[in-house]
Amino acid sequence: MKIVWIGDSITYGERATPGVVGHTQTFAFLVSAMRGAEMINKGVPSNTSSQMLARFDADVTPNNPDWVVLMCGTNDAYPDTLIPLATFEANVRSMIAKSSPAQVVLMTPPVTTYAPEIPAVLEYVNKVRDIAADTGTVLVDVHQALSDCKVYEPATFAGLLMDDWHPTVTGHAFIANLYTLARYQAALLNPGLSPDGENMRSFALVTQSGGSYALQSGAVNASSVTKLATGRVKVSFATPLESTNYAMRASLEEAGNYLVEPLEKTVNSCTVLVRGWISGTWLDADASFSVSIP
User: Fold this and answer.
1) Dihedral through CA 142, CA 146, CA 152, CA 153, nearest 10?
2) pLDDT 10s digits, 20-44
């Protein structure tokens, strides 16, 4: 699988000042590594959506990506490089259309602490949300997650940005975890679509109550579910699969900051780990989730 990331300096990620972020610490690298995907980072510092659109045919299309991840809006809303909102919308829609047949993920730009830009950037954030809803595109709402963190966990938020816009190493990890969670939730809403766009035919909905797990009615090719330990759950198949060379995707059923990670797969069962985001750290947790197998 190949993912092309197109954006500005936030997507590019690597920085020497005012803080240091290395190539392997960027959210683009972290997410690609978690997905086992080839990463092609086409973030260019200071770019607006107009500049991204102008280079799209050269930077994105020739790579024949499976997924295109687009983040823009910060520089579009900046007073010195302001792009009208209508032009911004047209640019984003054009890049979505140009991405076909690749699947697209839209990411809202992060919170800015630069006072002159704060009112304007919200208009661009809301426009990205509207475009995602209108086109059925997967949305990773970075802005909302950081806004919530700023309000509810200010001590954590203080370590996520190194200046008015750019994530720290911890901030990149925060966005990477958010991206993975959003993709899993999108797959849950559309059981025929895995986070990697594969056709997932077997689908087991698992519910958790009081620390115990049970299969929900309608589960396909799932015979039982067993809690191995806190957050570690095994789903057994009613009919053994042909081999262990299958894709397994786990998605989240309940709302909140949770992540379901595949751990082990056999022809007879698969095991997943459920984590919850607690005080800035992913810890083993109990939550309802789903498992899908092609």
Assistant:
1) 120
2) 898 888 999 988 887 778 999 999 9
Domain ranges of the chain: 2-189, 202-293
Q: What does the block give as tokens for 246?
A: 């299958």
What's the pLDDT tens digit per position in 194-230? 444 444 456 677 777 777 888 876 677 788 888 898 8
pLDDT of residue 115: 66
Q: Which of 102, 176, 182 is nearest to 141 (CA)?
A: 182
Give the DSSP letter string of 208-270: EETTEEEEPTT-SS--EEEEEETTEEEEE-SS--S-S----EEEE-SSSSEEEEEEEE-SSEE
Average pLDDT over residues 127-136: 93
In terms of residues, how long is the chain?
Answer: 294
- Phi, psi (deg, nearest 5) at residue 198: -85, 160
Task: Using alpha carbons, select from 275, 248, 276 the residue that is nearest to residue 262.
Answer: 248
Domain 2-189: CATH class, spelled out = alpha beta
Quote the CA–CA distance of 25 and 168 in Å, as a whole number. 9
The model scores a pTM over 0.85: no
Tokens 């940005």 belong to 161
